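Training component of the fellowship. As part of building independent skills, the fellow (R.M.) carried out the full modelling exercise for a liganded target. The chosen ligand was protoporphyrin IX containing FE. The inputs are recorded below so that the supervisory panel can assess the work.
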Amino acid sequence: MTSIASVQWDPYDSGLAADPYPTYRRLRDEAPLYYNEEHDFYALSRYADCERGLPDWETYRSGRGMVLEIIKAGIEIPPGTLIMEDPPVHTIHRRLLVRVFTPRRISMLEPRVREFCANALDPYRSRDRFDLMEALGGELPMRVIGMLLGIPEAEQAFVRDHVDSSMRIQDGGGIDVPDAAILSGEIYGDYIDWRRDNPSNDLMTDLLYTEFDDENGVRRTLTRDEVLGYVNILSGAGNETTGRLVGWIGSTLAAHPDQRQELVDDPALIPNAVEEVLRYEPPSMAVSRYVTRDVGWHGSTVPAGSALVFLVGSANRDDRRFPRADVFDIHREVGQHLTLGLGAHYCLGAALARLQGRIALEELLARFPRWDVDWENATLALTSTVRGWEKLPVVIP
Ligand code: HEM
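Fellow's submitted model of the complex:
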């Protein structure tokens, strides 16, 4: 049944965002298909339902947006916005990005990512407290995307702030829609024009010069607008999410000092610990879709034309899928979780996100085997799509 149950979930309620998990549990148990009347959307919260629904792109479309506010606002999505496209065009565009966004290009970044983390953390070695988001989480992902694209350092902070602030939402139900410059990627325009005249060994140069067969069967390179769209999606999707992952690593391990000590003693456990943090505290709680046909869930019908939220943050805590799902356990066989999505839009930056999480944690533990969090002064960021620490003051004993 839909929300005859008394449980309420308002994605714009910052009080709930502080600890959404008890509400998610009630949704799974009492209203596995939830309808929110105020904002007029449906939500699925069980792992099995998200796992079944997400790959069905014919029923659950991204072409009108994958963020609830964008779908509800009915704004026109600029062509080439990969994450908000559907097959067959999405398949063609994704294939091109997969060709240039190679595992080799990503693993080649490892020494530079490590160097960046080391330089970012070293100045705090003699300090007894610092803000982990300021020191590392806020900067690392954009620097890494910059390394990937070849963006000059001076441009990077501006781009990051612009992207993040556009996704900030108002507490109490206000809905902000990203501005047109973000959706079109125009903030990168000057850099792209410069890089076209100054090609080098980076992903931007590949995007500008790689030939592909487009949806009309024409062999060509990407237009300027298409390149803008790609670059914008990469930085929009890979920046704040990965920064929040760094914060969740810091806070979750502070809350589980015994497990942290195991990682200090045996760093080979670190990759699985990062995977468990991804499952346990997903930076991105929800992906939304536009429903193309009447579809039945739990005895009710979701009408064609609805907005539907796949609550992946809830699915990851579903005991039906993960035994003792509310327990953080670095030894868990995590397997597939939904933090990085599923199906046609599965996160293209998954390997890059994992690499950053692993290296950030390795470098952190190498310098600070123990830390506490000053919880009183830690603040959570509330954005429409991302949940994580804005400030995470850590205290070094
Ligand atoms: C912890 C960090 C990250 C999280 C939690 C995350 C999460 C996600 C999720 C849930 C999706 C699927 C959205 C949907 O189905 O509508 C997605 C797609 C995507 N992500 Fe990530 N992401 C992360 C890091 C990155 C990074 C580092 C990059 C690249 C620099 C990146 C690039 C992308 C792109 C391009 C897509 C769209 C793929 C498509 O539409 O085919 N992500 N991400």
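The panel noted the following from the submitted structure. Residues 62, 66, 82-83, 94, 145, 233-234, 237-238, 241-242, 245, 283-284, 287, 339-341, 345, 347-349, 352-353 surround protoporphyrin IX containing FE (CB under 6 Å). The chain has 19 helices and 14 strands.
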